[in-house]
Specification:
The protein is globular, with a radius of gyration of 19 Å. It has helices at 2-15, 32-37, 39-47, 73-76, 85-89, 101-118, 140-143, 145-153, 157-168, 173-177, and strands at residues 26-31, 58-64, 93-97, 122-127. Helix 6 links the parallel strand 3 (93-97) and strand 4 (122-127). The chain is an alpha/beta fold.
Amino acid sequence: VVPVATGAVRHYQVKDKDEDKVKTICIAMHGDASVAGQGVVYETAAMARLENFDIGGTIHIVVNNQVGFTADPAQSRATRYCTDLSLCIKAPVLHVNGDNIEQVVRAARIAARYRQQFKADVIIDLVCYRRYGHNESDVPQFTQPILYKAVTKAPVVIDKYGKQLIEKGALTAEEIGR
């Protein structure tokens, strides 16, 4: 998907004569296992600085649920972080807690400003968890019993954020319930 998305962005930049590459940008979503394990992500990122492929950077959002295809990171990659693609393309990585909605928004704003100012790739490592399996036949409790015992007990992010907004006085319970 990433090569197609970057190609579409390049098309619109050329068509619209967007020489500064600020009107159309690419935002690519990846899973932690795919960004670490699919060569097409690396290949597209590596080509991004070539003249005919340069789109002024991509904002890569990695949904890092820490159990790509139900395997521990140590079983699925040779690097510490799934975002170590950044080492090859010299892109900054913003590691952010996916349970903290305001910090996720802040990271997205920083990434957008960085991309616009430096015309380069930036990566948001959205560290979170997958409440349910990878698909309907995947039961992560079998391969990750300790982690999923904690995940099952964790509040749903939107409920947690709603409670924070009520405590701050930003919204009432009635407004959230709508």
